[in-house]
């Protein structure tokens, strides 16, 4: 029986979830890949912390030690752009497939990683970077004849939870945020969520996937929900509307226009009824029209689900490495 060796970069909420699901779904993974999937190395920041992992798994804070071993696939779930980006570059250069959940890193460097992977004949999976378990990347990649014209989404579960609580229970912003922290839906420092940056990164990844390009970041209006008060919510309710934090991108005659901001939606808008920590994305295409996907946008098992679906696709060679924008531009220049 073939064995596929996995290195997990990060063993927090997401990394631990991936490890657990690899153990609990060993038979399904075997049926799907014809291989035994084995976690053989784990990278963490504090390797001496107690983690109850079997002795044969290398636990280290050194990426070099991990890449010296015989690894086939690297699954990355650490936080922030660095050192995740250089680590994944090194992994690709060694010939490993890479799969990531890291939106901040991938919004900044997805293009370079895709190009490098193409040069080295390996795949990059990034379904988990955007909207947790919702298979939105896969859905966009499967639309080959349709032209996507617009994408609109609730991409940050923390913001949606806070707005839902404010509207349903008439809570002040700070009280709803405190509840979100208590339940583990918001981090100790929730700035990226409530200031809109988290949704912005995800929108840029959707843009790369749907349009093979991103707008100039400085042209994108990014507003979070932190200025919204209970009075705003009450006014909105009495006008028959709903406030939602919405990330939008559309193709206007070849120019991409994007924004991330609180918006007033009519009750019949597909995103108006999305409550709590759920995410939802509406894709509008020329042939299909509007399709909305809704589901858990974060959490240990939904995110592990996206990473493991990518794992199976990578092994079956189904993951499409989208033609990077700069490469496309280069091809146009060469052609033209
Ligand atoms: N949580 C979610 O629901 C969710 C959903 C979608 C995507 N994501 C993305 O997934 C990634 C991981 O999120 P998480 O919630 O699992 O984070 P987390 O619980 O904070 O875990 C982070 C893990 O990464 C390790 N780590 C951090 N910096 C490192 C470094 N410089 N070198 C080596 N290891 C390092 C930590 O090591 P120690 O254990 O030693 O501290 C920890 O094991 C993030 O990029 C996040 O945006 C998360």
Automatic annotation (TrEMBL):
Pfam families tied to this protein: Homoserine_dh (PF00742), NAD_binding_3 (PF03447)
Catalytic residues of the enzyme: 202 (proton donor)
Residues annotated to bind L-homoserine: 187
Residues engaged in binding NADP(+): 10-15
EC numbers for this chain: 1.1.1.3
GO molecular-function terms, A-Z: homoserine dehydrogenase activity; NADP binding
Keywords on record: Amino-acid biosynthesis, Methionine biosynthesis, NADP, Oxidoreductase, Sodium, Threonine biosynthesis
Main enzyme class: oxidoreductase
Designated name of the protein: Homoserine dehydrogenase
């Amino acid at each position: 029986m073939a064995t596929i060796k996995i290195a997990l970069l990060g063993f927090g909420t997401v990394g631990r979830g991936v490890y657990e699901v690899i153990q609990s779904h060993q038979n399904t993974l075997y049926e799907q890949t014809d291989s035994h999937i084995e976690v053989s190395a784990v990278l963490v920041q504090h390797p001496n912390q107690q983690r109850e992992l079997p002795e044969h798994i290398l636990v280290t804070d050194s990426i070099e030690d991990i890449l010296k071993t015989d690894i086939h696939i690297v699954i990355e779930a650490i936080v922030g752009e660095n050192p995740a980006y250089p680590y994944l570059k090194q992994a690709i250069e060694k010939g490993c497939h890479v799969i990531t959940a890291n939106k901040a890193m991938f919004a900044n460097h997805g293009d370079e990683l895709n190009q490098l992977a193409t040069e080295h004949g390996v795949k990059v999976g990034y379904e988990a970077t955007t909207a947790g378990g919702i298979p939105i990347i896969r859905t966009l990649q499967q639309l080959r004849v349709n032209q996507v014209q617009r994408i609109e989404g609730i991409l940050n579960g923390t913001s949606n939870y806070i707005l839902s609580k404010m509207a349903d229970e008439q809570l002040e912003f700070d009280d709803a945020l405190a509840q979100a922290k208590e339940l583990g839906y918001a981090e100790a420092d929730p700035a990226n969520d409530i200031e809109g940056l988290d949704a912005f990164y995800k929108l840029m990844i959707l843009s790369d996937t749907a349009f093979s390009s991103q707008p100039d970041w400085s042209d994108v209006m990014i507003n979070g929900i932190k200025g919204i008060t209970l009075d705003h919510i009450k006014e909105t309710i009495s006008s028959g509307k709903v406030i939602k934090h919405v990330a939008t991108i559309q193709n206007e005659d070849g120019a991409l226009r994007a924004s991330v901001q609180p918006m007033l939606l009519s009750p019949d808008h597909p995103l108006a009824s999305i409550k709590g920590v759920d995410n939802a994305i509406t894709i509008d295409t020329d042939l299909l029209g509007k399709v909305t996907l809704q589901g858990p946008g974060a959490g240990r098992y939904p995110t592990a689900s996206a990473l493991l679906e990518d794992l199976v696709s990578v092994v079956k060679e189904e993951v499409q490495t989208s033609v990077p924008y700069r490469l496309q531009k280069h091809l146009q220049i060469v052609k033209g």
